[in-house]
Design brief:
By secondary structure, the chain is α/β, with parallel strands linked by helices. 52% of the residues lie in helices and 19% in strands. It has 15 helices and 11 strands. Helix 4 crosses helix 13 and helix 9 packs antiparallel against helix 12. The longest helix is centred in the first third of the chain and has 20 residues. InterPro entries: ATPase_NBD, GppA/Ppx_hydrolase, Ppx_GppA_N. Belongs to the GppA/Ppx family. This is Exopolyphosphatase.
Length: 348
């Protein structure tokens, strides 16, 4: 046993992950991922089925067993915000507690994106240099995406859109069987959502970079980064996108060695990127390996003062609150007073 060892568990819409690290050395001791079907259940039926609860509990029991082998005394277990959408979410959390002993923490969407952004910043080389130019952080979750804009090193804007690839797939699944040109239908649906976003987005940002993050982006890694390093150009993306658009899903699944579940989310995600590239005219896309579980570990290292990020994400929260206040035309003197007291009580 070592007091420097720490375990993080995340339960997502499509997988559950355990990561154990040595906090002092910042080295990974164990990494385990198990597939679950939570997202499909929620978007199809509005609740998590009993079979899925059992499947998830068995996976988490395996994680707990592994943690015991390492004699882990400190850990944190969280569930992504999309799981709270299930009508039986609290029942599921209690069943997991009874079967595994784990006290799952529900993350809000804001907490989830905050952790993911910190992990991306920690794992992306030259992050501070990148955000000095127009940069959009695109966090792709199964149910929604978070678009966060940086320019001149500062946070500019962030917005959540219910446009995650799994949600889109399930919403349009029935229509897919009825139409001969599903790609056009999908493009119209996604474009309508991006158009709404563009109305609120900052107009004076000249975009250079996209940083793509998400808990399960294996399909992107296989399809778009197959022969590239950590980034691709807009032209390279467009060429591969055209190939994906005209190739049957079964052929793509075989070529990239992906399950149908993964490959069926590739087109919605690729189309989303295409529309964002069209709106922003960004020049390159970087793929971050950072997962939510890494965000949990980064947060713990910051709490222990063994890691300091060069970018201040807490200040991003303050800026975001200011922007919301301006949008709703609140009393500025009152807002400034509230900000002063809040920072004193919660941050300092």
């Amino acid at each position: 046993m070592s007091t420097n060892w720490f375990a993080a568990i995340t339960v997502g819409s499509q997988n559950a992950i355990l990561k154990i690290i040595d906090m002092r050395k910042q080295t990974v001791l164990e990494y385990i991922k198990a597939e679950v079907s939570i997202g499909t259940d929620i978007f199809n039926r509005g609740k998590i089925g009993l079979e899925t609860v059992e499947e998830t509990s068995v996976a988490l029991e395996g994680f707990v067993s592994r943690m015991k082998e390492y004699d882990i005394t400190e850990s944190r277990a969280v569930a992504v915000s999309a799981i709270k959408e299930a009508s039986n979410a609290e029942y599921v959390r209690e069943q997991i507690r009874l079967q595994t002993g784990l006290e799952l923490e529900w993350l809000s969407n804001s907490e989830e994106r905050f952790l993911h952004s910190q992990a991306a910043a920690n794992g992306t080389p030259n992050f501070n240099e990148l955000i000095k130019e127009g940069t959009m952080l695109i966090d792709i979750g199964t149910g929604s995406i978070q678009l966060t804009v940086y320019d001149e090193g500062n946070f500019m804007f962030s917005r959540n859109i219910k446009l995650g690839p799994l949600r889109v797939r399930e919403l349009l699944a029935e229509l897919k069987e009825r139409t001969s040109n599903f790609a056009d239908l999908l493009e119209d649906f996604i474009f309508s959502k991006i158009r709404d976003y563009a109305q609120f987005a900052p107009k004076d940002v000249s975009y250079k970079h996209f940083i793509l993050i998400g808990t399960d982006l294996l399909f992107f890694k296989r399809a778009f980064w197959e022969k590239a390093e950590d980034k691709i150009t807009e032209a390279y993306f467009e060429a591969l996108y055209a190939h994906i658009l005209e190739t049957p899903e079964k052929v793509l699944a075989k070529k990239y060695e992906l399950s149908f579940d993964s490959i069926s989310q590739l087109l919605p995600s690729a189309m989303l990127l295409k529309e964002l590239l069209k709106v922003t005219k960004a020049e390159e896309i970087l793929l971050s390996d950072a997962e939510l579980v890494d965000g949990i570990l980064v947060a713990e290292m910051i709490r222990r003062k063994s890691l300091t990020l060069t970018h201040d994400f807490t200040q991003d929260i303050v800026t975001s609150a200011r922007n919301i206040a301006l949008r709703y035309m609140t009393d500025q003197k009152h807002a400034e007073a509230v900000e002063k007291f809040a920072i004193h009580l919660l941050i300092n």
